[in-house]
Design brief:
There is one protein chain. 45% of the residues lie in helices and 16% in strands. The protein has 477 residues and is an alpha+beta fold. It folds into 2 domains: 3-93 and 193-362, Beta-lactamase, CATH 3.40.710.10; 373-475. The strands form 3 sheets. Strands 2-1-13-12-11-10-9-8 form an 8-stranded antiparallel sheet, sandwiched between helices. It has a 3-stranded antiparallel sheet with strand order 3-7-4. A hairpin with a 2-residue loop joins strand 5 and strand 6. The chain is globular, with a radius of gyration of 25 Å.
């Protein structure tokens, strides 16, 4: 019988014998169901899917809420975008290739990809495959979220790798951690080159098929029969559906950083296989799979997994964040626990529903599912900036159009100072937006539409007000 069929049968049996599961102390299914529903309602997520496993046995798997605007209910077979959880798939393929002798984990990237270069060739020539996998290459977060068109003849990951030619490394290779999609974009190109096939086909042959993950794919569903969740982006706290790009227009450049979609059933099977080092996908000598490189105190990064400890046990996890989706996969190899949570909502104030559900499933300290009041206040505070600038623009316009008494030297100096302050404000927003969000303005429209619109409108209003006030200063009235 197929693995997915076994998973469904196990789920049915467990849900029918919830009392027995409660008696074992593993998971109180009824109480957990109630908690999930309360947390989803608090966070406001349109839909979500949850799976809990231990030692390969399903303790819980279910769907909640709706797939999209059509109101279809989420099921354990609904496919969600999993975002950066994709990186664990990429890292696993790299380990497979190392076991096959196709590459060495400490090989310089240029040994296999001579075209890979940054603004400082001497530094980028020292970047190893291990540096990329563990985010110690020196490539920045913004480098991984910026699209640079450099060669119209290139497409997919190859185009993104070429676009890194102007990237400036923030540190020497291997010296320090900075999370960057660019690392895994380069790795996806490396996989395509060494495997001799598109990235999508490589993942299917190496991971999806061996684990019988029939509802997992890269960007494009393999068949119409797969239910695919619609992503919802928050607009000032309100989730609105995001229209999916037509298949023909989908951009493959970042598929290695976050291109996989999977059902909760499939992703739980995958996470359990990784946790148990399933020989179908995990090489016997994959020593670096959970070999952690320190990141900040208490946290590190292994091969596609963040790591920390809870109750002295190593915990490995990775979140996924794409426009309209927010997810988390967690494995505890020592106990055999696996928890996967997929949601179809994202934004600046989306809270942390996946982590809240994970903590509830594991019996860890509770985490709020909804966004904090501080986060909500920050979002709405951003709205007041354009309103204030509009008022200032109105007053400036009236003074320009209506005859007024000449300015005193003090008022003239204050207006000159205001012009300078407004221009500095534009510069701060222009520089600060990528630094705060980790994305460029063009990418920010996809991830944070409300903040991006607010920032762009604010900069435009600042420039108009500054121009008007400068005219007043020059005119002297």
């Amino acid at each position: 019988m197929k693995t997915i069929g076994m998973l469904i049968l196990t789920l049915v049996g467990l849900q029918a014998t919830a009392a027995q599961g409660n008696a074992s102390g593993e998971l109180d299914v009824v109480a957990f169901e109630d908690a999930i529903k309360e947390m989803r309602e608090a966070a406001g997520a349109p839909g979500m899917a949850v799976a809990v496993m231990r030692n390969g046995r399903v303790l819980h798997a279910g769907g909640y809420g709706v797939v999209g605007p059509d109101g279809e209910p989420v099921t354990p077979q609904t496919a969600f975008q999993i975002g950066s959880i994709t990186k664990s798939f990429v890292a696993l393929v790299i380990l497979q290739m190392a076991a096959e002798g196709k590459l060495g984990l400490d090989d310089p990237v240029v040994r296999h990809l001579p075209e890979f270069v940054t603004a400082n060739r001497l530094l980028s020539d020292r970047i190893t495959i291990d540096h990329l996998v563990t985010h110690h290459s020196g490539l920045t977060t913004v480098d991984g979220n910026t699209s640079n068109e450099v060669d119209p003849d290139l497409s997919g990951p190859a185009a993104s790798v070429a676009g890194l030619a102007q990237a400036v490394l923030f540190d020497e290779p291997g010296a320090s951690f900075q999370y960057s999609n660019a690392n895994y974009i380069v790795l996806s190109h490396l996989i395509e080159m060494l495997d001799g096939k598109p990235f999508e086909q490589a993942l299917k042959a190496r991971i999806f098929d061996p684990l019988e993950m029939s509802r997992t794919f890269v960007q494009v569903p393999p068949e119409d029969g797969i239910a695919v969740a619609t992503g919802y982006r928050l607009w000032f706290g309100v989730p609105l559906p995001r229209q999916a790009e037509p298949t023909a227009e989908r951009d493959r450049r970042r598929i290695g950083a976050g291109g996989v979609s999977a059902s909760i059933e499939d992703l739980a099977i995958y996470a359990a296989a990784v946790a148990s080092r399933d020989s179908r996908v995990v090489p016997r000598d994959a020593e670096r799979l959970f070999a952690v490189r320190p990141m900040v105190e208490g946290w590190g990064y292994a091969y596609g997994w963040y790591s920390h400890e809870v109750d002295d046990e190593p915990v490995y996890e990775h979140s996924g964040f794409t426009p309209g989706f927010f997810s988390l996969a967690t494995v505890v190899p020592a106990t055999g626990h696996v928890v996967v949570v997929l949601t179809n909502m994202s934004g600046l104030a989306h809270g942390d529903l996946p982590r809240a559900v994970t903590h509830a499933a594991m019996g860890w300290d509770p985490v709020p599912a909804a966004a904090s009041m501080g986060a909500r206040i920050a979002i709405w505070s951003a709205v007041t900036a354009p309103l204030g600038l509009l008022l200032l623009l109105y007053k400036t316009g009236r003074r320009l159009l209506v005859h007024a008494d000449p300015m005193s030297p003090l008022v003239r100096s204050l207006n000159a100072g205001a012009v300078l302050g407004l221009l500095i404000g534009v510069y701060v927003v222009y520089i600060g937006f990528p630094a705060m969000t980790g994305v460029s303005f063009s990418t920010g429209w996809s991830f944070f539409p409300d903040l991006t619109v607010t920032a762009v409108v604010s900069m435009g209003l600042c420039l108009f007000v500054a121009a008007g006030r400068l005219i007043l200063v020059i005119r002297g009235a």
